[in-house]
Design goal:
Oligomer: single chain
Order of helices and strands: HHHEEHEHEEEEEEEEEEEEEHEEE
Radius of gyration: 22 Å
Shape: globular
Number of strands: 19
Length: about 425
């Protein structure tokens, strides 16, 4: 349980604004300094990538000059208000309706050699009050000429399934790009969305004729040699995988009108065995099989920008004989879709829809807890996100986000067995997001 602390948020906000205003927008973050490109050349609106941004990432972050100090920073200051925040809710979520220093990140990003580059992030969580390693993606990339055709290929070492992915459809880089850390959220999510900073993944990828993308990665627990990939992460709550667990990715992409328009359709999957006791690391394991399909479309001009994403994941779960689950096996489906429009790279609106549904299992979801639990053992949750963005500068984002729940942890009304409605968790969220 976290405790609420008061921070001098006006001073923090003013200081961040002054710091950002003192630097030209071209100079942030470190990738922009390295390439000499405007942020919106590589980003539809950060962090969503354009075709140029995807090429930059696939080529190992190596475009441009090698910087002596490839360092950048990020600051997020947030405020959220839940629709029904009575005494019981405040006991579980004491920082609701407080201004919080959501996170501060330091990036070491850039070209290390002609074929090697890195994206790495260390973060201080202002809600949990801890510092840890965040997303890491170290790459080697090169090209082969196959007759008249180009084959881009590379290797990646990273610590979060799909952090290496170049499309903004999946959970790691998908919408919402920021959300309230002090709000109540649904209890269920596929395993592939819950392994960030807990695993080490080594993979090989290739892009043929800028059309067909393929990747194969193996994930294991990030211990021993790979321990730095989870520095600061609570080992007691981190997942422990049995051996090497395969992930695959296929995508067809196409660009036309000189990259003004682009589209992608793809699929991916993860098969994993997880120890129920992450300290014992022996005995029977829980088995997960996640299969996903996704698609993306972008239309990009200097004045108007439109994008849409879709992602659907189905997970099959088989539990070990000693698991708390009521069933031997369960299924969980996760759906996300988003549409965006930006005008003049400053004013943006995002509309998203999400739906989580699966097998009812009292052993997994019916915890008997008010507010956060499910009274009927169902994981089903669904809702809509409406978000407004204003970017007065390339490196500053001011955001207003509304989240409405149709269903929460299994029901529209009395979902926890204590009378709470799904819509009681509706959230208004404001964020100041600064890059420098």
């Amino acid at each position: 349980m976290t405790t609420s602390i008061k921070i001098p948020w006006r001073a923090v906000l003013a200081g961040a604004l002054l710091a950002c205003s003192a630097m030209p927008a071209q100079a942030v973050p470190s990738f922009a300094r390295q390439t000499g490109l405007d942020c919106f050349t590589c980003h539809f609106s950060w962090p969503e990538l354009t075709p140029t941004g995807r090429q930059f990432k696939l080529n190992g972050y190596t475009l441009g000059k090698k910087l002596t100090l490839p360092v950048a920073g990020m600051l997020q200051v947030g405020y959220s208000s839940t629709s029904k925040a009575d005494a019981g809710f405040r006991q579980n979520f004491p920082m609701d309706r407080d201004v919080v220093l959501q996170q501060v990140s330091l990036f070491f990003n850039g070209k290390l050699s002609d074929h090697v580059g890195i994206f790495s992030q260390a973060t201080y969580d202002g809600v949990e009050h801890r510092a840890s390693i965040d997303n890491v993606d170290l790459r080697y990339a090169n090209h082969l000429s196959l007759g008249k055709d180009d084959l881009l290929y590379g290797f990646t070492l990273h610590n979060n399934p799909q952090v290496q992915d170049v499309y903004n459809t999946t959970s790691t880089w998908g919408f919402p790009y920021a959300s309230s850390p002090t709000a109540n959220v649904p209890a269920a999510a596929p395993l592939i969305e819950n392994l960030g900073q807990q695993v080490a993944g080594g993979g090989v990828y290739a892009l043929w004729r800028n059309t067909l993308y393929a990747e194969v990665t193996a994930y294991r627990t990030s211990n021993h040699l790979f321990s730095p990939l989870r520095l600061g992460i609570d080992k007691a709550s981190a997942a422990a995988l049995d051996g090497y667990n395969p992930y695959w990715r296929l995508a067809l992409q196409h660009e036309w009108e000189g990259g003004k328009q682009s589209a992608m359709i793809g699929t991916y999957g993860l098969v994993a065995k997880v120890f129920p006791d992450n300290q014992l690391l022996t005995g029977p394991t829980d088995h997960f099989r996640d299969i996903g399909v996704d698609a993306q479309y972008q239309y990009i001009t200097d004045r108007h920008r439109i994008s849409a994403q879709f992602d659907y994941t189905r997970e099959w779960q088989t539990w070990n004989p000693n698991a708390p689950a009521s069933n031997h096996s369960d299924r969980l489906d996760s759906f996300r879709a988003k549409a965006s429009y930006y005008y003049d790279k400053k004013y943006g609106i995002n509309l998203g829809r999400f739906n989580i549904h699966g097998t009812a299992d009292n052993g997994l979801y019916n915890t008997g807890e008010a507010i956060t639990g499910s009274g009927n053992g169902s994981p089903n949750s669904s809702g809509t996100i409406l978000e407004f963005n204003y970017l007065p500068r390339r490196d500053i984002r001011l955001m207003l986000q509304f989240t409405h729940y149709d269903k929460f942890n299994g029901a529209r009304t009395n979902y926890d067995g204590f009378g709470r409605k799904a819509s009681d968790n509706d959230t208004v969220y404001l964020l100041g997001w600064f890059m420098f």
